[in-house]
Write a structure and sequence with these properties.
The structure is a homodimer. Chain A has 13 helices and 20 strands. The first copy, chain A, has an 8-stranded mixed sheet with strand order 3-6-2-1-9-11-12-10, with helices on both faces. Chain A has a 4-stranded antiparallel sheet with strand order 13-18-20-19, with helices on both faces. Chain A has a 4-stranded antiparallel sheet with strand order 15-16-14-17, covered by helices on one side. The two termini of chain A are 40 Å apart. At the A-B interface, helix 1, helix 2, helix 3 and helix 4 of A face helix 1, helix 2, helix 3 and helix 4 of B.
Amino acid sequence: MARIVMKFGGTSMAGIERIRIVAARVKREVDAGNQVAVVVSAMAGETDRLVGFCREASARYDAREYDVVVSSGEQVTSGLLAIALQAAGVPARSWLGWQLPIGTSDAHASARIEAIDMTALDASLAQGVVAVIPGFQGIDGSGRVTTLGRGGSDTSAVAVAAAMKADRCDIYTDVDGVYTTDPRIVPRARKLSRVTYEEMLELASVGAKVLQTRSVGLAMKEGVRVRVLSSFEDARDDDGHRGTLIVGEEEIDDMERQLITGIAHDKNEAKITLTQVSDRPGSVAAIFAPLAGAGINVDMIVQNIAHSTGSTDVTFTVPAVDLTRTIDVLEGARDNIGYASLVPDTHVAKVSVVGVGMRSHAGVAATMFTTLGERGINIQAIATSEIKVSVLIEEDYTELAVRVLHTAYGLDAAE
Amino acid sequence: MARIVMKFGGTSMAGIERIRIVAARVKREVDAGNQVAVVVSAMAGETDRLVGFCREASARYDAREYDVVVSSGEQVTSGLLAIALQAAGVPARSWLGWQLPIGTSDAHASARIEAIDMTALDASLAQGVVAVIPGFQGIDGSGRVTTLGRGGSDTSAVAVAAAMKADRCDIYTDVDGVYTTDPRIVPRARKLSRVTYEEMLELASVGAKVLQTRSVGLAMKEGVRVRVLSSFEDARDDDGHRGTLIVGEEEIDDMERQLITGIAHDKNEAKITLTQVSDRPGSVAAIFAPLAGAGINVDMIVQNIAHSTGSTDVTFTVPAVDLTRTIDVLEGARDNIGYASLVPDTHVAKVSVVGVGMRSHAGVAATMFTTLGERGINIQAIATSEIKVSVLIEEDYTELAVRVLHTAYGLDAAE
């Protein structure tokens, strides 16, 4: 007997027919003798509808009331799945965020789970009753409803799995796993059987939107074995596995370890260049301190070699959605920084190669630069971490870069 | 300063534009110096949508999970109205059924309110914060969500008003008050300024669907002054009043008291005649005991004069929706009852004249029978209470009967 958490996203919960398919999947795990908790999202489109109501009611809505409104979507699907499970002969009941309770911080609309009370849940599971838990919601210390931010149901599922000491947390979604890269760009991309938490964090944060980043961080911290798999297909690998397992590095044996695990890309960055910044101590701080103060995340930074004039150009990237705010902040700080001009550019993309294998292998970055150079792709900025090399390139070259790198690192599936 | 409860139905909450109008109405009461609690329904159509999901998920759904699903509609409108009030400059917050809490019985889908904890609510009102409370919902002793049955938000409003010792409970709806009869049938029907609880109970239960019957009973028991008025119009009577006030008999002075307050009709009854029932002790009990056991409400009963053969015909009415079940029950009990044939008839209507004034006046029933007889309308059954006389007639004559009675009792408005 194992304890497992199954999480289903909005596409899997969109309408009663699909909820019945979910119930059948859960029944299979129960019939196999497992204790099961299910975490559900709202029906696809429902959260958008509810968020739309709040925005229409007031541009500056109270986040506490927003949470009351938007948390209702998961409440509905929890009750409906419990009904569908019972109809399939599986004992089940819903446990709302305030009923368990799932305690969170009071940062409404982006709360963090602090503690899940297992008393009621343990008793329910021990009696063989499937617990259906709405994702995305909890309550704060003063008993008000909170939500975790968009995509928060993944985090709910991992948190429940950690609290339950679950053997596995299965995230059912509309893709059948994590791929070496986006299969729409590279048809010969391969599904990965296993990937480490750290690789998944890098792949997720640079554009592979399979799981909410925060949920992967939590799984790593709590050692929760997460599996990503399709709600709609039952296809298995040659080795009999379904989906992609996200685990600690120690669970991946050397034989199957690749140098590079995947290639990610992200078109949602914007590049800003400040020209002729005076080359004196503190000038760089004068740029980035006000941006940090405004809560804007700066990613890649390049400081060019100083001109003979005693000034330098500084280039960096920010999320494209923050570009207007970034420009406002920098124009406000212009006198303090001292620059000649501000040149924004949204026609850029970040392409990254990711893999824990590169820790023990030199030459990964060199292969990347050579491969891109041979195709005439100019590199505008570079950033590296222990398991990742990212480059900023002109947006039009994104797909070409991903394809040639996928081949260069030997990731293409056999024909 | 007064304490008032304002309740808004689904049509008043249908969409953000209308919720803003509701917020403006609430603001007016707050600006007048009142402490206000607002009870809201779900958006028009939303509860039907949610009930539809439950039925689609399983014909025999768990009422506890049904309550989780359908209570979400009022949760959404509570949060949205709180946001709209804040946007209008009125301090406000939502209090969900489990937050106050509103304690109910555990009869899921038709629970009764048992106690409303006023601790949090009193503190909030004392600080000048409008409390927005979802109607229709509560929690039972084991902390599960309950709902009160369709139309239950009226009962929530009256219960909150009783707990708050409110000076008034204003029920905003899509009509501007209670009329002497249905204005679609009698254009010269008059809006009543005041009506007693008992009259309202009789008018509501025989077809004037302005308020949930249970809410009127609760208002009578708790002495809550209820006012029914329009969400959409501000029209006032000649004497400056809006809507209809529902109060105790002692508040209606003799001058304004009418003999008859109103004429109601109900086409949702079905008539059943059992022929040649043996005229022996216990034969009538053999008919009605199994119907009571099946939870079917029998309304009017006529036992005809015994035939010389020692048998009698028994006629009675049940709600039309229960007709099929009634026939099943009676056919199952046929041997025990002993009857020749069962004759159902759904082409009947019940017409009632209602008024506390008839307590002290004889002749009300006689006027009714004479008036109908003069028009050739045959009376199939009669039922009376202290303040009501009802007759069963052929359905096609309903409107004619209502019109002639309205005139006969002097209820027509001046031209």
